[in-house]
Amino acid sequence: MNYIYFDNAATTKLDDEVFKEMMPYFINEYGNASSIYKLGRNSRNAVETAREKIAEAINAEPREIYFTSGGTESDNTAIRGIAYNYKKKGNHIITSKIEHPAVLQTCKQLEKEGFEVTYIDVDEYGIIDLESLKKSIKETTILISIMFANNEIGTIQPIKEIGKIAKENNIYFHTDSVQAVGSIKIDVKEMNIDSLSMSAHKFYGPKGIGALYVKKGINFQKFMNGGHQEKNKRAGTENVPAIVGMGKAIEIAYKDLEKHTKHIKELRDYYIREVQDKIPYVKINGDIDKRLPGNSNISFRFIEGEGLLLNLDLKGICASSGSACTSRFT
Ligand code: PLP
User: How far is ligand 1, taken at its centre, from the CA of residue 10, in Å?
Assistant: First the structure.
């Protein structure tokens, strides 16, 4: 069956060029990146080249990039790692109510361990209110964790402004950028981002590989014990083919970003217009402008989400309804 795939927020198809780049590291270049002989050094070089590409994409330095197993691990590592490391300074964390479970569940766990977490609201378009962010800051606040772009309604948060607020108040700023990396231009320096999560399978790279950016000078407690890989912060033999794939995928994503974004936006807007013209009682959720170029989130009044998705599936159309709280009529 030929699928019509409408669910790139869930995952993307591996790019053919990315796959080609990965292939040698599955077959002939199988050395452990920590081994000192040539086969190992080849793997090490491939890992470091990928690290450079990832750093360049977000205007970071290669030494600020740590490879992980994906967005979930990056979020866990950053939030827990910073919280544990700086708990003498304070125990208060600010996040939003619309974060991915990788952030929300991590915060819930930290609450059980004695941290205090404030979950700030978003407005009817899914955007953080900067005033309530400012108001929720306390003497004890050590970390703000706000996602760059939402995985369901696609709204993009005012990251630069949040970064500024965090910096002015001497608070670390983490952003879950899993949905944004590869779709939006990101500059960690200009945006005052202290740590950032990304995941390759959201930008046509392989699954099970991600990266965490942590600004130099910021310490975080590692949560896996073992070898000295990743500057002693993330133990475990590097997944070289996946790392190579991630490097290639991010390079492709940012090479023609503007052209690609324009094309995707045109397709998305055409789709939304057609739905609005042809189907009664629809509502577009989220902010029309401040949203990911490829995202549309639509409510169909009187139609039950699951039934709609099952019928689309029978026609080979892959789509998701997201969670009920973000796709309902307001
Ligand atoms: N954060 C966001 C916003 C996501 O959309 C996802 C994946 O859907 C994740 C985190 C988790 O990423 P991964 O699937 O790589 O663990």
Answer: 8
Residues forming the active site? 325
Beta bridge partners of 4: 317
236-283 tens-digit pLDDT: 999 999 999 999 999 999 998 999 999 999 999 999 999 999 999 999
Q: How far apart are the first and last CA of the chain?
A: 37
Concatenating the DSSP letter of every residue in 123-185 gives -TTS-B-HHHHHHH--TTEEEEE--SB-TTT-BBP-HHHHHHHHHHTT-EEEEE-TTTBTTB-
Question: β-strand 195-199 against 172-176: which pairing, if any?
Answer: parallel
CA of 271 to the centre of ligand 1 (A): 25
Atom of ligand 1 nearest to the CA of 147: 3
The residue behind tokens 């108001």 is 135
Where do we find the tokens 């670390």?
Answer: 172
Mutation test of ligand 1: which of 178, 179, 239, 292 has the most ligand atoms closer than 8 Å to its C-beta? 178
- Flag residues of the chain having pLDDT under 50: 323-330
How many angstroms does the Cα of residue 199 sit away from the middle of ligand 1?
Answer: 7
Ligand 1 neighbours (beta carbon < 6 A): 70-72, 75, 100, 102, 147, 151, 176, 178-179, 199, 210
Closest CA to 154 of 114, 127, 189, 134: 127
